[in-house]
Write a structure and sequence with these properties.
The protein is α/β, with parallel strands linked by helices. It has a single domain, classed as Rossmann fold. The protein contains nine helices and nine strands. A four-stranded parallel β-sheet has the order 8-7-6-9, with helices on both faces. Bound molecules: zinc ion. The site of zinc ion has 8 residues, from loops.
Amino acid sequence: MVHTEVICSRCGAAYPKGTLYLCPKCQGILTVQYDYSKTDLTRTTLQNRSDKTIWRYRDLLPCSEDAEEISLGEGGTPLHKATRLSAILGTNLMLKDESRNPTGSFKDRAISVAVTWAIEQGAKRLVSASSGNAAAVAAYSAKAGLDCFLLFDSKSPPTKHLQPLVYGAKGLSVKNLFTGTAEDLIELLYTLSQRLDAYNIFCWALINPYTLEGNKTIAYEICEACQWDAPDVVVVPVGGGDNLVAEWKGFKEMLELG
Ligand SMILES: [Zn+2]
């Protein structure tokens, strides 16, 4: 394992790995750091790996070598050549189909890593907040045999809560969950995690820097699928923007590794 520490993206302060939440000094977002000189991950070693999930890049994920990964087969999604659209647009367009992940969302990548990491940190139950598609937290909790507590906004459609509840999560409806400040949400999740003796796995990079580590494998897969000739432009749909930052980190790391 080459994960070394977390560093504040605003002031540069370094903290021991496993530190969660914001930088205590300036409230900046923390980023997961690696010692790239200590990995033997190369184009050749990747060619010889049969694992098509995100765990084929285990060298650049934060979890220990001997940690049992909590996986439902996430990653390895197809990159389709959009031939007809490319002809219309006059470019070479490809589409990465993330709906092929186990719960139908790219978030499976983040949650697979985050749950594996949480168990390594001693988590016995998990708590998170969801607008709906963090159902992955419930699915991976079920896979790991951990209790999962999810906060939902009281105004979000009940149909969005169905998937996590089917996976066995315990849901709690909260008024104005996502309309307050980020600090309010952080405080609420922190308090709840303390009271329930649960690990806060909320997968938003502002709170959990390990969120990005699973999602960055999208960039790794694109590099591999394109025979290491990375696209000129990658268009990423955003809500909170985690996926965009994660893919930037993934491409940057691949560049650093050559
Ligand atoms: Zn800082």
